[in-house]
Specification:
It comes from Pseudoteredinibacter isoporae. This is Diguanylate cyclase (GGDEF)-like protein. This protein is an alpha/beta fold and about 775 residues long. It folds into four domains: about 20-220, Beta-Lactamase; about 290-345; about 355-510, Reverse transcriptase/Diguanylate cyclase domain (Alpha-Beta Plaits, 2-Layer Sandwich), CATH 3.30.70.270; about 540-770, Alpha-Beta Barrel (TIM Barrel). About 50% of the residues lie in helices and about 20% in strands. It has 23 helices and 24 strands. Strands 16, 17, 18, 19, 20, 21, 22, 23 and 24 form a nine-stranded mixed beta sheet that branches. Strands 2-1-5-4-3 form a five-stranded antiparallel beta sheet, sandwiched between helices. Strand 1 and strand 2 (about 120-125) form a beta hairpin. The protein is flat. It starts with a helix and ends in an 11-residue tail after the last helix. The model is unreliable at about 220-225 and about 775-783 (pLDDT under 50).
Amino acid sequence: MNLRTRTSILLLPVIALSYALSAWWIYQEERATLIQLERAQLEQKITALHSSISNYKSFQDAYLMSLVDGDLLAQFLMDTNNIYRSNILQRHMESSLGRFDASKEPFLSLLVLDGKDEAILYLENSQDPFSEISPRQLATALKLRAQKSVSSTDIHLDSNDDLTLYKSIAIDLRTLQTPILSQIENAGLMVVAIEARSVSDSLRNLQKEYKAEIYFHQESQSQEGNAGPGSDMTFVIPLGGPQAVKLRVPVDYFDALLQELRGRLMLLSIISCLATFLLLQYLVAKFITAPIATLDRQLDELLTERRSNISYSSSNNEVGRLARKFQSLYTRLLASFNENYQKARLDTLTGLPNRMAFNEQAKELFDQFDRSRTISVCYIDVDNFKYINDKYGHEVGDRVLAQVARGLNDSVDRYFSDRAQHGGAYRLSGDEFVVLAMDVAEDDIKACAQSILSLFESGLSVAGASYPVTVSLGVASTQSENCTLSELMSNVDLAMYQAKKSGKNRVAKYSETLARQHRRMQNIELAIKSPGFEEELSLRYMPIVDRSRKLRSIEVLLRWESKTMGNVPPDEFIPLAESIGAFSKIDLWVIEQVFKGGAALRERYPMVKYVSINISSAELNSMTFVDELASLAERYRVDKGFFVLEVTETFATGNQEQVHENLSRIRGLGFRIAIDDFGTGYTSVMQMLNYPADAIKFDRSLIKRISQQKNIATARALVELCKLQGLLVVAEGIESAEQRNLFNELGCSYQQGYFHGLPLSFAELDDWVQEHENLSEAGNLVE
């Protein structure tokens, strides 16, 4: 597509849009003017209608006043024997109507009712000798009496758009005065009805002329109408009080007026658009196309590096000046690009190259990579950096990062400067740094990593102050020639997190073993989240015996035999389940299975008084666990006192208020609580005694420590303290007769461990019971 065609394609829409917008603007202006003119005419006509209605109402008031204040009505009421008395009032009515044009004389009627609502006078200006009282006129009078008012005005617009005005007053027929409210029920009523024929004719004319809709309205509104696009114009003619006639002019009326204007503007716009387009096309072709084609060719050569810059143009026209500006602009852009290119790849805080520079350098190294070469990455993550920011402020945090960067640079320069090639140190983001190296010996990488760690052995020194900062380092190298940058970064990230898990301020190197562990943990996580996970779970039963080795209780243990991974130990999948929030699903499954079989187990082993169930300590921070536990207990109608829920002492590190509440609620339901694995953490005995519990279980590690001679006295005191607090003491991990005898002597009521019995299936538990004791009633678990 040549330049002329492109300019035509560009110009035509712009010109068309310009003329369309101009036509639209002119149309809007003309439209607004036309609508304003129509509005003004309508408002003038409506004002005249309102004036006519006011004249009719004034006539009603004057006519009533002439009857009441004059002597005609009084004579009519007093001269009851005069058969012509109504003729006098008829002539008075005709005389009063003389103010109207004979051709537009309205229909007028007068109705007078006595206190019993009997008509004593009815007159109308018609020639009908059989005329009757209008039901609406009579209803208007009765409505006045019902409302206990002395006067009212009512207006009716019938289906033929004939407007009738009713004026009603209450009057004392003896005194012709307005009665007091208490006398209205016995007062006379006068109703004057007048058909406003000129108003009705005007309304019908408006309806015909504007194709308008006319209807009666009960609430007076402003005469302002709407005339926006797609909307009608509405006018309200007040009739007095809350009554009005509403006139709605449809939008079709205005569309018809505007149709011709739109046609003229559209034709004019099309002709002007085509003429302008042809003229501009000619001028562009003559004065712009050729010079721009030359400039375009030079720019193309510049972009393809066939020339260093645009040729200098001495022409003084626009294209010549444009060419000179392009030349100057390109020169400045090239200088600015080179400067920004360097800045965009440099971290302003630390002075180290940033992630963009790292990605480019790594790509360059991988482009040179083959099986004879090795690329290594050391991933450094600053530990406790959030603590530094929160405690000392972000300014100190920035100084810490800058000091870390200087330390990295020093270590890299010390160990890599004489090597074949390296990428150096980079700041990826926040507190994350990497060191990139190629063809550097593994020993040198280890030495560099240890050098980095040594910077943080006693905290990081910054401007004479020491801050509690350490780093975790992960190291990974390319394993094969097919290794990619993404794979290498994934490996080193895994190694870095392994260093964090190992206690921080450590180096961890990626290995296949680490990768297998990671993949296994991923597989375990996927399996836990899979729908059929519970189908692979099973229960085992650990005997708990008294001092005479008789079975008194059973601890239910969970086992997982995966179809793909084989046996997965609880200490491998339970912590992972807790970390991904799946512990509640597992706990509730175990509880439900135990509740289902609780009755059968109790019947089979009557000497067993309690069954212990392990639950995650995280459940004690849950807002829903206790309710779910209660729901399961209710569903299976279990004896809650038969079950002991075991939680590890780590629950003491959670939300203490929530923990106390949940423990109390569990005991309140009737379940018993045992503190499991006591001695594995750092929680004191006195702190544990503050929690509502029924038993405490000494962990295997504590058992081993207590078994030493120097700790026996302390252990005895510990057992006595627990028993004084009403806690049953259970020794876990009993593995020898010596330990059994020792803890019997110390006063532990119950024991469990491999010495007494392994975790057993339900069938194996039968054999164990047959071997160790006769099925007989035994003592209670809680003394």
